[in-house]
Specification:
Length: 541
């Protein structure tokens, strides 16, 4: 529905227009009206309609003045001027303002409906075009993410000098200069689902991820990167005068977008003043991020974690743990979605959460590691993994030996949990490939559909868009967009070599309705334009 605002000083004429047009039937919604421009302007600014229909001759503020002010505030708004004055000067001024149409009164119902239909069609075409270019702008950005991800890894590893970091950032079009920095890590899959369970595709969740990507796309103070398979990293730039202002903006946005009750977690690192120190900020964020299996709130700041760990009395901290550390759900969370390199921190936090005094008891330590062992075995059985080796390797004497000290207990816990994670990943690998097969087959047979997107493929696989994106990258060694673009370029090259079709025809046949965009992408991926590629083939022939 196109939201429409009507301005007409003559009450009878205004009422006649309102009643004469079956607004909803023709795709319009009349959201407001006013008797003159002065009354209309603040209402228009508040309502932000798609279309303004205004008389030209009115008291207080005429239609031309109103149109000028509206055009300044809302350049994309359509404007139709109604006038009883057949005067070229009025029409000339209206054209100069950029109005959509200039209609002379009295106008018949059929003529009015004809013009409204044309305006709606024009509006929808423009909207479709905007969405099309936005879609491909984001595809280009997604296509270039591998380079950005490599840069992020170089940044957080601390293995590259500052000069080279700036050179690489410049080549990628990234502005990384700032007075201070911080790192955020977040995931939308924090491990609260049952073992082996994945989130089914949801339009709502897909929109949330699109909203997040749009927020960080071109953001001057925060850059989004893939961190691990199911998590993201954010490099936040700050001012010394407001060292956490932009960090808080990002935290607030993510919290509001992902909402309460969702399976997400966000860790905030430690602010640093130099690019060379970002490694420390990342490690701080990772330390907080690894606590997601024990922490009930979806946001954890490293500073808060540090303060709590330094407290001798950890009673306040324990209140923040999900029920209590001995709850089987805590271990199940980590076994379900924890990473190998997080295991040491998890065990340390798990033992700390249980309580130092309790863990000093040999009998209780033995109970804890037995609980871990049974949880691991139960988890793997649910997944259908082969666990005979794990079942027979620990005798009662060996278990008692591992309970003799806290260090031995922690070492055993790390070993058996890591073995479980390896078996989990091996088991899920074959399942993931099975999930992806239907989607890949669909992509291979529908690559020429210009509307094909990651969301479409995720729907076919019936898993969340974020989960699909991560699985695809893991199993295919490239992102969805890279795979789709490569597939389209393969078929484009075949047609350039084997047919006499024009570039615009080939573009349409491989999924690009805009020939200029196709040519741009072809050159970016193939190193030459379509015509150069065709000529090179002819020269070799």
């Amino acid at each position: 529905m196109l939201r429409t605002f009507l301005v007409e000083d003559e009450f009878v004429v205004r009422e006649n227009i309102k009643k004469m047009i079956p607004w909803e039937q023709y795709g319009y919604e009349l959201v407001g009206e006013a008797p003159d421009g002065e009354v209309a302007l603040p209402m228009i600014r508040k309502l932000n309609p798609d279309l303004l229909i205004t008389d030209i001759k009115m008291p207080f503020m005429d239609g031309l003045t109103l149109s000028k002010m509206v055009r300044k505030d809302f350049p994309g708004m359509k404007i139709v001027i109604l006038s009883g004055y057949d005067d070229f000067n009025y029409a000339k001024q209206a054209i100069g303002i950029g109005v959509e149409d200039y209609l002379l009164k009295p106008i018949t119902k059929n003529a009015f409906l004809e013009r409204l239909t044309e305006i709606r069609n024009h509006f929808e075409q423009e909207k479709e075009q905007r969405e099309y270019y936005e879609k491909f702008r984001r595809e280009i950005q997604e296509y270039e993410k591998n380079s950005s991800r490599d840069f992020f890894e170089a940044l957080i590893s601390g293995g590259m000098d500052v000069g080279e970091l700036y050179k690489r950032a410049d080549r990628l079009g990234l502005d990384i200069a700032a007075e201070t920095y911080n790192i955020l890590l977040f995931t939308t899959e924090a491990g609260r689902r049952r073992p082996g369970e994945t989130e089914a595709y949801s339009e709502g969740e897909a929109r949330k991820h699109e909203k997040i990507e749009m927020f960080f796309s071109g953001n001057p103070y925060a850059m989004l990167f893939r961190n691990a398979a199911f998590s993201y990293g954010v490099l936040v730039k700050e001012l010394r005068s407001e060292p956490s202002a932009n960090t808080e903006k990002c935290v607030k946005f993510i919290r509001e977008t992902l909402g309460e009750g969702s399976d997400w977690f966000l860790a905030v690192g430690q602010p640093v003043e130099r690019l060379s120190s970002i490694k420390q900020s990342y490690h701080a964020a990772s330390r907080a991020f690894s606590r997601r299996f024990l922490y009930d709130d979806p946001v954890l700041y490293y500073e808060e974690l540090k303060q709590e760990e330094n407290r001798k009395d950890n009673s306040r901290y324990l209140k923040k743990i999900d029920i209590n550390a001995m709850n089987p759900a805590v271990l199940q969370r980590f076994l379900g979605s924890g990473l190998l390199d997080e295991t040491e921190d998890f065990v340390k936090d798990y033992f700390h959460a249980i309580g130092h005094e309790a863990m000093e008891s040999v009998v209780f330590r033995n109970y804890v590691i037995l609980n871990i062992r049974f949880s691991v075995l139960g988890f793997l059985k649910k997944l259908g993994c082969e666990i005979e080796e794990l079942e027979v390797q620990d005798t009662e004497e060996m278990m008692e030996e591992r309970s003799r000290s806290l260090d031995l207990a922690a070492k055993y816990a790390e070993e058996i949990i890591k073995k479980a994670l390896v078996l989990r990943d091996e088991n899920s690998g074959s399942k993931n490939k099975s999930i992806l097969n239907s989607a890949i087959e669909y992509i291979n047979t529908h690559y020429m559909d210009e509307t094909l997107s990651l969301n479409t493929a995720a729907q076919v696989a019936n898993i969340s868009a974020n989960h699909f994106s991560a699985l695809f990258s893991q199993n295919m060694g490239q992102t969805f967009i890279e795979y789709l673009t490569s597939l389209r370029m393969l078929h484009a090259r075949e047609m350039l070599r084997c047919t006499g079709k024009r570039s615009s025809e080939i573009a349409a046949e491989v999924g690009y309705k805009d020939a200029h965009y196709f040519s741009y992408l072809f050159k970016k991926t193939q190193g030459m334009t379509p015509s150069e590629y065709r000529k090179a083939g002819e020269d070799r022939g």
